[in-house]
Amino acid sequence: MGSMYRASKTLKSSRQSFSLLFNSIKPNRRDPLRVGLQQAYGFSSDSKQKEPAVDLTQFPSDKIRNFSIIAHIDHGKSTLADRLMELTGTIKKGHGQPQYLDKLQVERERGITVKAQTATMFYENKVKDQEASGFLLNLIDTPGHVDFSYEVSRSLSACQGALLVVDAAQGVQAQTVANFYLAFEANLTIVPVINKIDQPTADPDRVKAQLKSMFDLDTDEVLLVSAKTGLGLEHVLPAVIERIPPPPGISDSPLRMLLFDSFFNEYKGVVCYVSVVDGMLRKGDKVSFAATGQSYEVLDVGIMHPELTSTGMLLTGQVGYIVTGMRTTKEARIGDTIYRTKTTVEPLPGFKPVRHMVFSGVYPADGSDFEALTHAIEKLTCNDASVSVAKETSAALGMGFRCGFLGLLHMDVFHQRLEQEYGTQVISTIPTVPYTFEYSDGSKLQVQNPAALPSNPKYRVTASWEPTVIATIILPSEYVGALDILLNGQAVDALATIVHNQKAYRVGKELVEKLKNFIERQMFEVMIQAAIGSKIIARDTISAMRKNVLAKCYGGDITRKKKLLEKQKEGKKRMKRVGSVDIPHEAFQQILKVS
Ligand SMILES: Nc1nc2c(ncn2[C@@H]2O[C@H](COP(=O)(O)OP(=O)(O)OP(=O)(O)O)[C@@H](O)[C@H]2O)c(=O)[nH]1
């Protein structure tokens, strides 16, 4: 094996080999935007097959850590990835292009990540008095916007841990929660990182408390950093190495790899991003894809460092790419298991199927360009497996496709990528959600295109459904009024309601008024209050029925009359304090119906 690598021939000790390895890896100076998108993905027409630059045999599983960077949008994932790549010499410091891994034009123009990107880094970890030890770290930078969460969940499948990045001023946000649960459900070790501590409005203590109360994360384990200034960054990679477990695969088991992403390259065909779960792979090996049953020879294999770098092999636990000469994108099914041909392996679980939220028609702006659009969509969906595509024809627009997306931003980005990366001008129809119609014969029809709804069906439509969301809304308590209704100071739980702060006063006032109409007068005064916490926001009173205690008191003994009235008042006070207010069942129904 050593004979395959120039570097490894001269190795004397592992310490020496590590520094040799470092010297053999030059920071990549290419500017992906300048050299164009195809090259940014790694290959160009004049790119010759390079000698393997890295000897991966020095990195058995226990020297590997695979982790994602996850966060809410704009909390600084890509900037942190930049700093970590600089720290490890993977890219040159001040390479002049912030958010290096955001390579697509659409990402640069919009300032958001839409594609997860992997970078392999080499890092020498020094623990106190021990000798420094070399590690191979695979970092996956993920998008923050909810429309691209499929990218996040796929990336997590190639990792054992995640850096959960939170903005020190904004604190925990919606996608922090969603991404935390994605990582948690995938059983990953979570390393909490509070970023942007350089901001004047940063409040790391508040954010730490949020991380503790919402996710039960240990506040002592939270790293405080500024990806902008570099403050605290030296603690990140040692924490990754100490806390995140190495990949669990078995090196002497038959090869099993997970295909977790892919893209189409004009010169090489389909390039597959893989994570090696068990066994090892070398260039020239024959591999089969479980879902398609197709077999190929591995023509090139390597790592993303951060551009594609041939290594001639991939070992258990490593993340990299393979080229097999696959020409059609349909052959690469994301989530597929790749194994050595003529061996039998248990397929990996793959990914949950995508649920498309919006559908729209995509047609060539010039009707005659249908073929060009077909090719462009085929290639782009190779790099974005979350889009569904089905051919359709419109009387007005000719031949086109009905595409399913995860959201409106996803749809917009897809159109922009078709235009920018493949020069295809498209017309897209008004986006719609999928509807289900039930007919009088009991049959059901799912309609993703308004034009596909039969205008004169044989059977009557008896019911129609549109998608509904059962949602849990998590928001800071100051935005919610927990509106209690109190009768004589006692909360009536059945009437408590959660409303938006802005509506709380109106709703409280209305409920109090209605209660006044529906509750009958009691022997004592009834105070009706609407409250948010301890604050009373609306109030009214139902006066007491008055028993004529003076009825039998003839004559004009004013002192006795006063005494009787005082006694009555005292009794009512006591009743008001201890007595329960009688709300008839029907009154409840009426109040709730009206409210
Ligand atoms: N002040 C300050 N700004 C930062 C820091 N880290 C990142 N930023 C800025 O925050 C903005 C967003 O940073 P990105 O790295 O693109 O954030 P992201 O999480 O990758 O964004 P998405 O991938 O689109 O979700 C940029 O303007 C960064 O310059 C930091 O530590 N301090």
Automatic annotation (TrEMBL):
Family classification: Belongs to the GTP-binding elongation factor family. LepA subfamily.
Membrane topology (UniProt): Peripheral membrane protein
Compartments, as annotated in UniProt: Mitochondrion inner membrane
Domain called Tr-type G: residue spans: 62-248
Species this protein is from: Brassica rapa subsp. trilocularis
Catalysed reaction, written as an equation: GTP + H2O = GDP + phosphate + H(+)
Residue ranges that the Swiss-Prot or TrEMBL entry lists as coiled coil: none
SUPFAM superfamilies membership: EF-G C-terminal domain-like, P-loop containing nucleoside triphosphate hydrolases, Translation proteins
InterPro entries from the UniProt entry: EF-4, EFG_III/V, EFTu-like_2, G_TR_CS, LepA_C_sf, LepA_CTD, P-loop_NTPase, Small_GTP-bd
Lineage start: Eukaryota, Viridiplantae, Streptophyta, Embryophyta, Tracheophyta
Name of this protein: Translation factor GUF1 homolog, mitochondrial
One Pfam family in the UniProt entry: LepA_C
Function: Promotes mitochondrial protein synthesis. May act as a fidelity factor of the translation reaction, by catalyzing a one-codon backward translocation of tRNAs on improperly translocated ribosomes. Binds to mitochondrial ribosomes in a GTP-dependent manner.
Domain of life (superkingdom): Eukaryota
NCBIfam families assigned: lepA, small_GTP
Record: residues binding GTP: 71-78, 141-145, 195-198
Annotated CDD domains: EF4_II, EF4_III, LepA
EC number: 3.6.5.n1
Alphabetic keyword roster: GTP-binding, Hydrolase, Membrane, Mitochondrion, Mitochondrion inner membrane, Nucleotide-binding, Protein biosynthesis
